[in-house]
Amino acid sequence: MSSVNKITLMGTVSGTVDIKVSDQGITRARLTLSVQRISRPGAPPSFDEIPLLAWGETAESLQNTAPSGSLLLVKGRILVNSFDDQNGNRKWVTEIDIRDFQTLQATHPAPSVTDTANMTETQAGISESDFDFSPLPDEKEPVATPNSEASFSEQLGSDVPF
Fold it and tell me: Is 148 domain-assigned?
């Protein structure tokens, strides 16, 4: 039996990205993502502060493109690690190992998730002209259009078993 360990989160970067480079030259980034919980109508918003971890090029990209307050979409996997503290007590740490991310908005301070969802195209800085809606080169025209004289049954022929 196989298993799946994937998670997708959207939230704002809390604080700064902590970057360290190992003796072997491997870059590691640690940061915290503030993710708004779903709450009852009229209830004050509450947030989860989720620790994130990234390695290599992903870590370097986070340092350059994810300042505090940035709205991020993060894809990764859940890591659960344990260690013994100085008193010999076992401690558990859960964090997200980032595999991919996208900066959705790099303004400071970042709006809440609900503010972003209610933005107009102009407020978000995008417009329909930013996207190419033309057909792909290999797309074919439909065999019949709604106004064509050929009926559906004529196109299929009489050998259809139903």
Answer: no
Which element (helix H / strand E) includes 67? none
Residues 6+ apart with CB under 8 A from 102: 72, 73
Say whether pTM exceeds 0.70.
Answer: no
Q: Is 22 exposed, middle or buried (0-12, 13-18, 19+ CB in 10 A)?
A: exposed
| Token pair 């996207």: residue | 131
Residue 147 vs residue 27, higher pLDDT = 27
Question: Residue 44 is part of which domain span?
Answer: 7-114
What pLDDT was estimated at residue 106?
59
CATH code assigned at 61: 2.40.50.140
Q: Does residue 122 lie in a domain region?
A: no
134: pLDDT strictly greater than 70: no
